[in-house]
Hints:
The protein has 4 helices and 13 strands. 19% of the residues lie in helices and 37% in strands.
Amino acid sequence: MAQTLSQCSFFITVNSRARRIFRFEETNTGSVFIAIFSGSQIGIPPDHIEVTERRYSIHPTPENNELNAIHYTFKLNNGDKKEHFNYTDAIKSREGYVPIFCELFPSLAARKYDMRTKHFKSSFELGNYDLTEKCLIVYLIACHKDASAPERIRDDIKIVEYVAGDYKFIMLLSCIEAPATEFAWHTSKITENPEDFANEADQIAARQFMEKSSWNDCLIVFDLWRIQLYRTYLNNLIEHPPEPGVDEWARLQLTITPSTEDILRTYGAQIL
């Protein structure tokens, strides 16, 4: 059985309260597990289902000389389980990066986000945020521990690095000028097994999608995913307005918010 070598909780401060959003755990097998504390259910009461686990794990994958496996696990208390994989050559090539996921966080008001005394023993504060005014978005990138990344991109993005085992994890934090709700939204990179495709062109495309990304490509993905999550957030406000008039505000915001197609045209490339 794998043993824990180190772990670290990452938290933000909201209204003078510490709210845990991630836990990184390194094991003696060379794997790192990343628990995500964001969103406690899917659906709306009374027709909701509790989320019991959300995590990513990145593995050394010794049977493959080029690729590492990044595994996503999502469990509900009704027994349902969803999972997917992201295979990448970014770690073992010791250069390049791989986008893992992007999360738009909820208001973090529930007790499940509390930082207990034991969590502070190994922890890192990511900042102070007013979630009544803003939504927090965190984008996670992985690379080899010796790879470097810019210390600063632009004023509205904070960069935090964390090394565990052979991996370096880079968090990009930014905000959207809109209040957080009880809902969380998530998107991530998923790769497909080339052997699952009969067509040679599709097999080649699947292998290419496992190739490392440049830092600039990762930033393009961040802009794409951030827009996707914000548009999902707005559509949810239209469907479930917390108070009268919010749905009209959300419709207006959708008309002035770029689409993913707009972002791709801006960069002149399609990354994902």
